[in-house]
């Protein structure tokens, strides 16, 4: 197996990723941000998108938090080049850097978001510490990623309709963590102020009005109800980790 990070290196891969992520990851990313929007009390002024890739979260972050200044950080320059071409304006900056050691003097953030990147980080314990260190006093970090400990039934259901990308997703799941492993990493990072949700979105969004709004929005991502069902199964394959600042009340 290639190293999972090898998918994001070249210009062709970065352009290809931009296409792939739209149909395949767009709905999950959208649902994750809806979840975050519910958890964040006040509107964040500074947001960090860690492992931002081609900047796919930017339009949704803008919609949810129009006042915020967004910083995207990624380790791969080719991914950032696509992001800069698509989104850069005065309220957004993209910086090359690692989750392990944030770019120099990057400052504090009210919301640190990371979607589908954590499993790729070389030293996750250091990264978790770095994240907590860069949270403002009322800040919140949210990491959403694939989990390894999903039943083979859910996995095969979710991958049934995605034959084009099946082996890619299988490889990425193989490199992901179980919830126990994530908790172990947090323990090693000495982080106790955290919360993990491991339920599918159908359970996390119980509120009727919210479900309606979300279903309408999700319909924009796909036209085929079979594909939508497959994607909803895919959404069950994530965990949601919220990290609070140290000594959070
Ligand atoms: C699957 S992509 C997700 C991109 C984006 N978050 C999205 O939602 O489309 C994973 C990204 O994480 C980046 N990445 C991997 N390791 C990283 C690290 N240590 N620090 C920052 N970014 C990293 C990769 O370069 C890649 O762009």
Automatic annotation (TrEMBL):
GO terms for biological process: methylation. Pfam families: Methyltransf_31. InterPro entries: Methyltranfer_dom (IPR025714), SAM-dependent_MTases_sf (IPR029063). Residues 45-189 form the Methyltransferase domain. Keywords: Methyltransferase, Transferase. Gene3D superfamilies: Vaccinia Virus protein VP39 (3.40.50.150). GO terms for molecular function: methyltransferase activity. It comes from the Bacteria. The keyword Transferase applies. PANTHER family: TRANS-ACONITATE 2-METHYLTRANSFERASE, TRANS-ACONITATE 2-METHYLTRANSFERASE-RELATED. This is Methyltransferase domain-containing protein. The lineage of its organism: Bacteria, Pseudomonadati, Bacteroidota, Flavobacteriia, Flavobacteriales.
């Amino acid at each position: 197996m290639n190293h999972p990070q090898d998918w994001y290196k070249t210009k062709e891969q970065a352009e290809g990723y931009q296409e792939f992520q739209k149909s395949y990851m767009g709905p999950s990313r959208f649902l994750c941000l809806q979840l975050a929007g519910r958890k964040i009390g006040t509107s964040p002024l500074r947001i960090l998108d860690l492992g931002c890739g081609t900047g796919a979260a930017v339009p949704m972050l803008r919609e949810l938090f129009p006042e915020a200044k967004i910083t995207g950080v990624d380790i791969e320059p080719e991914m950032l080049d696509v992001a800069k071409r698509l989104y850069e304006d005065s309220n957004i900056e993209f910086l090359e850097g690692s989750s392990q050691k944030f770019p120099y003097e990057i400052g504090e953030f009210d919301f640190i978001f990371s979607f589908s990147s954590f499993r790729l980080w070389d030293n996750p314990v250091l990264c978790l510490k770095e994240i907590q260190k860069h949270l403002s006093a009322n800040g919140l970090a949210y990491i959403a990623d694939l989990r390894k400990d999903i039943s083979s039934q859910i996995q095969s259901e979710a991958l049934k309709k995605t034959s084009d990308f099946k082996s890619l997703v299988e490889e990425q799941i193989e490199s992901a963590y179980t919830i126990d492993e994530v908790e172990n990493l947090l323990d090693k990072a000495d982080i106790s102020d955290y919360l993990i949700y491991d339920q599918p979105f159908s359970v996390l969004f119980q509120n009727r009005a919210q479900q309606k709004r979300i279903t309408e929005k999700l319909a924009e991502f796909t036209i085929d109800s079979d594909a939508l069902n497959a994607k909803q199964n895919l959404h069950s394959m994530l965990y949601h980790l919220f990290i609070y600042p140290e000594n959070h009340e």
